Amino acid sequence: MRISLLLLSLLVAGSALAAGQVEVSMRPYSQLADAGNSRFDGERNLALLKSHLEALGQRLPDGQTLKVELLDLDMAGTVKPTRNGQDLRVLKGAADWPTLTLRWTLSAGGRTLESRKERISDMSYLMTPLRVSESGPLAYELRLVDRWFAERFGARSTASIR
User: Most buried residue, 16, 72, 94, 146, by CB count within 10 Å?
Assistant: First the structure.
């Protein structure tokens, strides 16, 4: 009985570790259309986006590597200045949807499986309510990335990483 439990736990642990990986590179926030309201926001948002994309590697089959280069980011909403000096992001649902431009390459065993440059966006981002788990400064952008990943790399990626 103990041996069976030990073997089962090793099998489960091994399958949990077996996953692909995502390598992310991105331009500095100042070279992107809209990564945040300030340098602090921009750097924080890029770090969040990078860590989210890297976590999605858990959904790739073992041995696959996805290299993603973020070429541009335009966050949902527009930034409006306020009297107190703190800029405010206003979401209207008009032409202010989240958009990312990505260049990516999926490889396995030293060979390229697929490679593309894509511009992804969610023009109806305010039409679908956010789930409780979808919050924070990049809620709409991370949801967009989750959908893109699920469409491109299969049903295994549909569970949210958050």
Answer: 146
Question: Looking at the domain assignment, is residue 12 inside a domain?
Answer: no
Residues 39-91: tens digit of each pLDDT: 999 999 999 999 999 999 999 999 999 999 999 999 998 888 888 877 778 88
In this structure, what is the dihedral angle of CA atoms 53, 59, 151, 74, given to the nearest 10 degrees? -10
Q: How many domains does the chain have?
A: 1
CA distance 132 to 65: 30
Domain span including residue 65: 19-157
Task: Indicate whether 8 belongs to any domain.
Answer: no
Asked whether 104 and 57 are in contact (CB, 8 A), the reply is: no
Per-residue pLDDT of 99-134, as tens digits, reads 999 999 999 999 999 999 999 999 999 898 888 888
